[in-house]
Amino acid sequence: MLSEQSAATVRATLPAVGAAIGEITERFYAGLFAAHPDLLRDLFNRGNQAAGTQRQALAGSIAAFATRLVEQTGDTADGRRRDRPQDRPDAMLTRIAHKHASLGVTPEQYEVVHEHLFAAIAGVLGEAVTPEVAAAWDEVYWLMANALIAIERRLYAERGGAAWREWEVVDRVEETADVVTFSLRPRDGAPVRDFRAGQYVSVRTQLPDGARQIRQYSLSGAPGADVRRISVKRVGGGPATPEGEVSDHLHARVREGAVLELSEPYGDLVLDGVEGAPVLLASAGIGITPIVPMLAHLAASGHDAPVTVVHADRSPADHALRADHEAYAAKLPDASVHLWYEREAPAHARTGLADLTDVPVAPGTRAYLCGPLPFMRAVRAQLIEKGVAPADVHYEVFGPDLWLARA
């Protein structure tokens, strides 16, 4: 936990740092990439950098971590010492660590980040960064960094290291006008490590300009298969707005026989402790990709408690993996399916945006959400209103996690 002296300094300076955190992270990334252009070319998502979303996510995570640290230190109203190390935001740290491990982040890279982050803090705040202030925020940084390093070390150990592996595309299916499913098999023919429903892999591919960009895609096939299946939505982009440069490349250039590099499976949106419990799986758009394997797992494991399936999309034609979605739900003995389409809704679905007002939610429900942030915020709020415990609402964000940044 944060030392008492540093906690007092961080508490006093948190408003100033928080007010400048956007400028700090912008300067940080500019300095980092000027010194290490290879990181932008081959590790960081260029689309997220161009859009500014990675800066927002970094700012949100630092602010949230520092705030939690100072909340758990100091004195309570009755004069007793507040000491709650269990309040460290482990869910946030675990989510970040899984992402880092899927990218192959190393402990040495935290030193590089530290150098450029603190140069940015000093450059923005100037004389306000006294030795005492620098030491306090240095303590915050290394508490967060060392926690992440420890989680990442454990994840690497569980998976035999951080090595990339070559996989060959053995099938390509056009799911919708803008979603393609690729099935891949390892080129070396060695056994495939199984994954947990809801997890993702990083995919590394070389683009026409020579960059080896990495993106994460949920594994959209059922666990236990000897192939990996990913479903990729095309995201429009171009030289000035490269948000979709990898998805466009995969759609336009990757066919059967092509070779991609994949990481081991990672991700913390998994079905823990749901045996005998009601489950709600809510998705929107391409957020369906981790939900389908979850349904497959529940069906294969004989889950007999209520399962509520919620999905929202633009239209039935845009509903990727629709056949699998409905087929796995039909195999469950106590499942209800609730669909919303913005247009062309059939008789068994509703028109408009998802609204859980009339959807029954059983006591003790464990909920798993994936989709655009506004969708997940709205669904989470409605679930809590219906009595679902906040700790039982889990989510996955594609790209930088902006939940904290926009809270």
Automatic annotation (TrEMBL):
Residues 162-272 form the FAD-binding FR-type domain. It comes from the Bacteria. It catalyses: 2 nitric oxide + NADPH + 2 O2 = 2 nitrate + NADP(+) + H(+); 2 nitric oxide + NADH + 2 O2 = 2 nitrate + NAD(+) + H(+). Its cofactor is heme b. Residues 1-153 form the Globin domain. Its EC number is 1.14.12.17. CDD domains: FHb-globin_2 (cd14782), flavohem_like_fad_nad_binding (cd06184). It holds the Pfam family Globin. Signal peptide: none annotated. Keywords: 2Fe-2S, Heme, Iron, Iron-sulfur, Metal-binding, NAD, NADP, Oxygen transport, Transport. InterPro entries: Cbr1-like_FAD-bd_dom, FAD-bd_FR_type, FNR_nucleotide-bd, Globin, Globin-like_sf, Globin/Proto, OxRdtase_FAD/NAD-bd, Riboflavin_synthase-like_b-brl. Belongs to the globin family. This is nitric oxide dioxygenase. It comes from Streptomyces asoensis. The lineage of its organism: Bacteria, Bacillati, Actinomycetota, Actinomycetes, Kitasatosporales.
